[in-house]
Design goal:
- With 327 residues, this protein is of the alpha/beta class.
- The protein contains 9 helices and 12 strands.
- The longest helix has 32 residues.
- It is elongated and about 65 Å long.
Length: 327
């Protein structure tokens, strides 16, 4: 700040002397036209300059002193200190350490953080079913875990003591097989086979469901396009198992048979009749996914009239997820 004041003083002095020189020049110009009597009571040009210079110096000193007084309290703050002062305080918590680490499992894809709060940095992610070594618990509901040779934290809502059921299980025919190819299988399981229907559901798929579905699982069943005449059998089979599925913590959806194109061996009117019976006669605990109406309204692409392209399967999957997450 001292350096800045000196610069200002120099500028003021230079400006002042520039003004004095202008006055002297004017007087000299007058002396060219008229003779000035230096012995008279009038001041000579030297006296004028000396007098004005003294006044200017006094005014300049006062101005600089005023500037120094006004700016003397200015404090320089580094950019690092300024940034730190704007940061919000982090979540405060305490950790109760376990006597020995405990093995637990993630119940969904979850963020791993440097502290017990969403305001701490993300260190990475763990997928559903990841075996995790838990070393303690915090007073705000987070778990302290061992992650990549360091201590980290996971929100308690996403850690369970036993391996949980797969979040989403699809059970169906070739359309389910192709949906798996389109959207992948992370956090999902598929019990499906090309060209199958009621008999395969009863004799094979039914016994495989408990291996994948458990507490917290959403199960989506999608049979019927290969044997639309078996609506009554599908209804009896699903209704006879809904008690066991519900008690196991499984949420069950039946996905409507979706529309076909012109080359298919079945018609959309037959599909509509099948869907109407399923929706009206299934146990009320079985929820309905109306993919038929969705694709009829949004459109679909099918080369053979029966199976869709990948974009259509991804669109249908997004519709399923939007309905499920709204419940």
């Amino acid at each position: 700040m001292k350096k800045n004041s000196n610069n200002i003083s120099n500028l003021i002095l230079l400006s002042s002397f520039a003004g004095v020189l202008s006055i002297v020049a004017a007087i000299c110009a007058v002396s060219d036209r008229e003779t000035i009597n230096l012995s008279s009571t009038a001041l000579c040009s030297i006296e004028i300059v000396d007098s004005m210079a003294s006044s200017i110096e006094a005014a300049t000193t006062e101005a600089v002193a005023g500037i120094s007084e006004e700016e003397g309290d200015t404090v320089s703050v580094s950019s690092k200190e300024a940034t730190a002062s704007l940061e919000m305080p982090k979540t405060v918590y305490t950790v109760t350490e376990y006597e020995s680490p405990v093995t637990m499992y993630t119940s969904d894809t979850v963020n791993v953080r440097s502290g017990a709060g969403t305001d701490y940095d993300k260190l990475g992610k763990l997928r559903w079913g990841s075996e995790t070594l838990v070393t303690g618990v915090t007073d705000n509901g987070w778990y302290e875990v061992s992650y990549d040779d360091t201590t980290a934290f996971i929100m308690g809502d996403y850690i369970v003591p036993e391996l949980p059921g797969t979040p989403i299980v699809f059970v169906g025919d070739s359309r389910t097989v192709q949906m798996q190819m389109a959207v992948g299988s992370t956090d999902k399981a598929y019990i499906a086979k090309v060209g199958e229907g009621y008999n395969w559901f009863l004799n094979t798929a039914l016994s495989e469901i408990p291996h994948y579905a458990g507490n917290g699982t959403t199960m989506i069943i999608n049979f019927g396009v290969n044997d639309l005449a078996n609506a009554s059998k599908y209804i009896r089979l699903v209704n006879s198992n809904i008690d066991a599925w519900t008690e196991a913590g499984i949420t069950v959806y039946y996905a409507a048979v979706t529309p076909v194109g012109g080359n298919a061996s079945v018609s959309n009117s037959q599909i509509e009749s099948f869907n109407a019976r399923m929706q009206s006669e299934l146990d009320p605990r079985v929820r309905w996914l109306d993919g038929y109406t969705y694709l009829t309204q949004t459109g679909f692409s099918s080369a053979d009239g029966l199976h869709y392209n990948s974009d259509t399967y991804r669109s249908l999957y997004s519709y399923y997820m939007s309905v499920i997450t709204q419940v």
